Structure formats: C-alpha cells, structure tokens
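Hi R.,

Here are the chain sequences for the assembly we discussed:
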Amino acid sequence: MSTTATALKRILLGRPMSSAELEHTLLPKVIALPVFASDPLSSNAYATQEILLVLGMAGTLALSKVLPISIAVATLLAIVVTSYRQTVRAYPSGGGAYRVARENLGMYAGLTAAAALLIDYVMTVAVSVTAGADAIVSAAPGLEDKKLELVIGFVLFVTVMNLRGVKESGTLFAIPTYGFVLSIYVMLLTGFVRCLGGCPQAASSQINLKPQVALTFFLLLKAFSAGTTALTGVEAIADGVQAFRYPQSRNAAQTLAVMGALSITMFLGISWLADHTNVVFVEESRQTVVAQIAHTVFGGGFMFYVLQVMTAAILVLAANTAYQDFPRLSSILAQDRFLPRQFRNRGDRLVFSNGVLILATLAIALVILFDAELNHLIQLYLVGVFISFTLSQSGMVLRWRRLRETGWRRKAIVNGFGATVTGVVLCVTIASKFKGGAWIVICAIPIFMFLMHSVYKHYEEVRRELGHPDRLPEDRRPGNQNMVIFVQRPDAAVARAVGYARAVRPATVEAITFDRSQTATWSRLAPEIPLKVLEQGRSRTTAVQQYLRSRREGLTDHDFLTLAVPEVLRSRSTLELLRGWRLHRMKAILRRESGVQVLDLPVVKDDVEEGVDQAHEPARNYVCVLVAGVHNAALQAIEYAETLRPTDLRALHLSLDATESEEVGEEWLAAGVPLPLEIEDSPFRDIGLSLLNYIRSEFDPDGLNRVATVVLPEFIVKKRRHEILHNQTALIVIKRRLLFEKGVVVVSVPFHL
Amino acid sequence: MTGLGNLVRRLARPPEELRDEGLRGWASSIERATPIAQVEPRERSKVAGVIQNLRIDPRPGRNFIEATIIDGSGKELIVRLTGRTTLAGWRLGAGLIVEGTVAEKDGSLMILNPEWDLVSGPEHG
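And here is the predicted structure of the full complex:
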C-alpha cells in the first residue's frame, strides 16, 4: 500500500497491533458494562411500551395489569441473570448458548443455538439502529425521506468504530450508556418524589381505549412475551467472557449482576410510573412511553431533551453488543470447524474483522430488504434469543445432573425453571409473530445449520485425508525429480530456468515450446536439454496438459514432475499480473493436475544483467518449505524439496498464533521429521511480508549465484466451491509478494484431497 | 505542507519501531539484566528478552531447540538448549530470562544451555 493509503487506514482504524498485545485489549468492568449491556439496558426504552401496546387492545382498564406483568418479566430477568451467572462461572472460557448446548445437549442443539444467535445478532443490529433512526426522525420529521440512508450510515459508523477495536469503541460507548442509565434514574427519582403528593397525570391519560378483544389469559401471556424484550442481550456477557480482564469469569459474573440490577430497577420503575401516571400508548402515539413519562414528570424542559438524546444514542449503540458477540461467536465456530477458517483471522486491530464485516453486510441487507420499517423488522426479533436461552438453560440442567456437585439440585432448579419459562415465552412469541415474519427466522435456522454442518463435514474429511504422518521417516521412498521447462520465447527468464535446472540436476529434463523457430537458439543455450515442439491444437493449455499426462505415465507415484514456467516481467507493477493472464490461467489449470508441480520463475527485466543466450548455474539453492501443520501435505512438500539438491533445506512455520505454533513445534519433535523447523513470528499477521523479510535476511538471493526456492504445500479440493474453506487467498498473497523479488522461485506442491 | 508530510510519515511509522520501544521499557525493569547490545562475549551475563523465533532440530546428533530473543536494544541473542525432546513451554512472545556465559558464533551472540526462566512477556499484562 502507498504511504498515503496506509496513513488513511491508520487515521480511520488506528495503528496495527501486534498479536501479543491482545491482553491490552481486554476490558475492565467499567468499560465492559456499557460494551455488553447497552443492548439489554436500552431495551428498557421500549419494553414497558410493548406491554402497554398489547394490553391496550383489551381497553383502558386492562392497562392496570402492566405492573403485575412487569413484575413477572423482572422475575424472569432475575432468573435468567442468575442462571447465566452460574453458566459464566461454569464456563470460564466463554459460555455462550452454543458452547453450553453443544457440550450438554449434543452437536445439533449446539448448532441450533449458534444459528439462532447469529441470526439474532444480525437482527439486533438492524432493529436497534432502525429504532435509533426512528427516534431521530420523530424529533426531526424532515429526515423521513432519508431514513434508510441514515440507518445505513449508523451501521457503517458502528462498523468502523468496531474495526478500531473493542477497547476504544468501549470508551466511546460508555458515555451514552451511563448517560442513559443516569437520566432514567433522575426521571424515576423525580417521579417518585412528585408522587408523594399525588402522582401527576400524563396527557394521554384522558384517552379512553375501547376494548377490542377480551382480557384473556392468552392476551396476558402475549403482553408478557412482548415485555420480555427486556431480556435481550443478557446472553451477550456470557458469550463475551474472553473479552474481560482477569479473573475473567468473576468479572463477567459481577458485571452480569450489576447489569441485572440496573435493568430490573429501571424496568420496574418505568412500569410503576407508567401505571401511576396512567400513560396510554397506541400505535398512533407520537411519543414513546418513556418520553410521555418524562414529559409528565419533568413537565418538558431540559431534562426531557437530555433523556431523549440519550435514548436515541443508546439505541444506536445497542447494536454494538452484537458487534462484540457475532465476530467472537463466529471465530469460536470456525475454531470448531463449523465456519470457514477465515473467521479466526484477527485484523490489524486484533478484532475478528471478517466477522465484523459479514455482520455489517447482513444487517445492511436486512435493513434494505425491510426498507428500515421497525414494525416489520421487530417481528423477526426475539425468536432467536429465546431459542438460545431455552437451549442453554436446558443444557445447564443436564450439566448439573451429570456433575452432581454440592448444591446441584438448587442450581438445576434455577436453570430448569428458567428453561421452562423461556420455553413458554418462545412458543408464545412464535405463535404471535409467526405470520408477521418469524417464519423467516424459523426457516433460516435449519438452513444455517445445514451450511455449518456441511462445512464441518468437509473439514473432517480433509483432516482424515491429511491423516497421521504415515510415510515417516524410515519407510520413505523419495522419488526422482523430473523437470519440464515451458519455453515461450528465448529470454532471460528461460536462461535462468536452464541454470536452475542444471543446479537441480533432475533425473530427466526436457523443454517444450509451441514455436518451431526456437530450435536453433535453444541448441546454443542448452544443448544437453532436448526441446520438444508441441502442436497447439485446440488450446495451448490442453496441449501442455496432454504432454504432462503422457510424461506421468512412465513415472511412479513417488516421482515428481515439475513444470517450470519462466516469465519476464516488464516492471514491478501489479499490471504485470493482468498482462500475463493467459499464462496465469494455464498455471491455475495445471495446478489442479494430479502429480504435477508448477514452479514459477519470474524475472523482472531491470534485474537482468547477463545475456539471454547463456545460462548461469547458481552456486547455491536455498530451499524453504512453508509449513502450516505436521501433515501429509507438508511431508510431501518436504520430500519434493529434497529432490531439488538444496544447499540448505529448512522448514519454516510463520506464526499467527503462539499457541497454535507451539503445538506445531511439539508435533514436529514428536513426529521426528528429520529436518530443522524454524518458527518465525508474524506479529502483524502479514505472512507474505514476514516471509519476504525472512528470505531477504537469511538467504539474500540475487538470482544469479544465490537462489531461494519457496515450496508451498497446497490443498487441491475436489469441489471448487470448497476452495473458500481453505484460505487459499493466503497463498495468493504470498505468491504476489514474492513475484517481484529477485532470485526467488516459488513452487506449489499440490496435495489432492 | 511539511507539517502534513511529517504527520503522514508519523502515522505510517512501522509498527516494529513502536514495538521496540515497549520492549526496551520491559527489559530495563528486570533486575540486573544487561541490554543485549551491551553484552560482552566470554563474560557471564543476565539477559531478559522476548522470544522472537524458534528453531527445532530433531535430527540425530544435533537434537536441540533454540530461541532468538530480542529486547529492543537492536541486537539479538541466541539461546540454545541441547538434548531436548519437548519445547518446555517455549513459545513466541514469551519472556525468557537467561544467565550464562555468552559466546560469539558466526558474528552473532549465543548462549548455550544457560540457567533460564520463562516469564510472561512485556506484552502480556
């Protein structure tokens, strides 16, 4: 990247952080509370209102049921919080619904919870950002037309803040969260004091609602389930234990307790005031319930507006909770091989950037699809939350029964009761929202599960095929090297290729060309190497392919057949890649050819000093095999490397994660691979750059006397669509980095799965 | 314009440079530790550094593990343990405090089978 582009990225996202700095990004409780609790706390802005809306259908008199229902919801909240505190202590490494369900109820329950949660995080972003935009639009009606743009703008804002990293976004989000909590408490306190001398009445208390339906038990249940939006986001803390400072599970449990206490008092206080000021709320109401209470209590004025602004702010920021947990959950799923491994990659700021970007994309798509209509979006909400609540608490019950620790009965009763109640709420939610859009979620969950399961199946298959190193070390039968040089025209790169072949001294070496006029020059350049002129036929690629296949016939399975592709690059510009697209296409196709290794020998024109008709044999060929793990693909690449007559042969592991690399190191020692392994840090997670620096400092290749050969083991999957699961982009990035480097030869050794 | 240019350069400062600053601060906080750049060959020294890379050579007859440690002083020190069959907890980014006689080998500093202690590195809290 150019300096200016780098600077721009730094300004937007901050400086890149080294992997080791991860611990600095852990959150103290004061910051963790707003980061994880903005979602559950913000739901107080509309939970009471949702209850009143349902009760209102049974007439004004029914509204008095708001307090008992709120008490029931608050009790449920207390149960869920208590039960999640148990979960967090039992699962110190992060006990989201997925992990609890998977461990105690099996893989499919785990996947159900995971799918439900992922969908719900997307919903959280879409719903809360839309609600925030609604608050702004109702204050400034002129913005009505631009609402969709406003929502997308908010999503992008929160996305960028999150790409900057947890801690910094946390500091920013602390202000509105604490501001919201504080202004609600001021409102509640003022309200209580004023109620001592008889409560002031809300303007809407004059409205008389005619009963449209009877006040049945089902209606009360429906009102109750509407009020349970107050519970959304409780699971966020349990999912995010790993973001807390040490001792993680204790801090998370304490934060949960504080969040629960704040949420319950705020919720009950608002409902109590709504009841005593006789607020009436219908869908046509222009002011929210909280706004009406504030207006009644403060009689308009400064505090009224402060509260409104804080409400709007916390609603937008509630999306942040999802931004914390979606990427973390998807990285856990990727670790368990249910999602592509790219979700484990940490970006410049140690955030799981891919997860953040996917979440943003999905949320924006959803908002556009529903045209930023809150009433429609909210129908899809809650189902996922309650599926995960129910699964996670049922899982905990089974866990207590299995472990039978002291006091397990009490714990099991708490979780069991929670599971039953959340299960009932789930059924009521589905029943009342199914037609409105909940069916979309119900259908999407199995689809997500199916996709995750097929990803898992694929990775398992690969793992089996890579298997245990079974060709180690005694029964190895290293094969012969056979080389084919692909000659397009007589140039410096071809001369280098001939020099390289002389250094390698393969068992057999041949050159192929499509140009008959080459023969004369060739016999001067490399008289010892036979040149075969191929008929072009239908396409050059097919002709080369057929030639290679016929060559393979005479070889054993252990022999290697290398196609060396020399290429002169006119400049060090990325445009060169476009210029040589035909050659690239051919290489890409031949890379999938079984038993063939493609060796890239690019030469940048400016680097060439020698003549094109003499081949110089390099005195040293340093060979370095890039190793990601100790498996058959890597071992095959090592066997290949040994046939190149290396001056120095070593295996190199570039580390993105110290723990993972330690495992690779231990496996290397245990497997007894008779080769030194170097483990190099790639502190800023740019493998291409780290490899380049390593080659420069260790080998200093000049292309003439010293050549460095990088051997890349590569998986070739049977189905093209599986390629996305193997992070082959890393290989592309590496090749791209090494392309213009003097004296570096790159060879792919494909391992066919 | 130069002000802006400076700002751009400062923002684009290589992250490695920033990291070295942190390492120096950490190493200087370890008691009696000598910065690697000031270590004299053939003298007994105590050095604190962070493991930058590891080499494992399981070939019979060699059989060692080796770490290069850095402390931000600009030089590096190779620490080698012979006869090992495990990594003994050595991992990238860990802090290693070693004490022993430093030798000079092919222009780089090396300490063979020293007394050693693993500590959490400067970047781990």
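Chain B has a mean pLDDT of 83. The first strand of chain B starts at residue 44 and ends at 57.

Let me know if anything looks off.

Best,
T.
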